[in-house]
Amino acid sequence: MYKESTNAVVKHLINRLRDVRTASNEFRLTIEEISRMIVAEALADFPTITTNINTWQGPLDVEMLEVQKIVLVPILRAGEPMLTGILQTLPYARSGFLAMKRDEQTSLSKLFYENIPDNLEDKTVLLLDPMVATGGSLIDGIDYLKDIGAKKIISLNILGSPYGIEKVQEAHPDVDIYIAQIDERLDENNYIRPGLGDAGDRAFNTK
């Protein structure tokens, strides 16, 4: 299953990302804001637990997300602002990291660093990858997480192509995808069009 956001505010923020005048700091903050909105959609029906808190009128039993069952895994480096944004909402969620780089000649991704918490079998892993162009990096990330025991994976994304979404769904039909917007197509270089450029470079001002 994939779900593209219909939220007008999300669309507004996506177009802020597209604007070449958007500086790297604002670009990162905008990704953080979109990520908080997307994770709210993805976890709308997530299990809750009863927790007793102290309120201004005394103790109260309330329903809270079972955050201990959530693991956030960004694909670095572009996924880092997504992690930062979501941790503002879910500060006690555990985090892991996958570092992958796309070969510009072959469009294939290579994993060169990982640091993932143990015992993923009873956790929900939120895989954070801003761009889904060919879907290669996302598929490889899901492959790796499943290989080390993840049973429930949800993909959170900012922008994608119809081709990339289709490929991810073909490879992993059990993974739900929540994405802010799906653009028109890929070009001959496998870049999303109209897109917003390289999310990692724009977020960290590396080019």
Structure summarized in a few sentences:
This protein is of the alpha/beta class and 207 residues long. The chain is built from six helices and 13 strands. Strands 1, 4, 5, 6, 7, 8, 9, 10 and 11 form a nine-stranded mixed beta sheet that branches. The protein has a two-stranded antiparallel ribbon with strand order 2-3.
Architecture overview:
With 207 residues, this protein is of the alpha/beta class. It is built from six helices and 13 strands. The strands form three sheets. Strands 1, 4, 5, 6, 7, 8, 9, 10 and 11 form a nine-stranded mixed sheet that branches. Strands 2-3 form a two-stranded antiparallel sheet. A two-stranded antiparallel sheet has the order 12-13. The longest helix is centred in the N-terminal third of the chain and has 19 residues, at 24-42. This is Uracil phosphoribosyltransferase. InterPro entries: PRTase-like, PRTase_dom, UPRT, UPRTase/APRTase. Residues 7-206 form the Phosphoribosyltransferase domain. Pfam families: UPRTase (PF14681). Keywords: Allosteric enzyme, Glycosyltransferase, GTP-binding, Nucleotide-binding, Transferase.
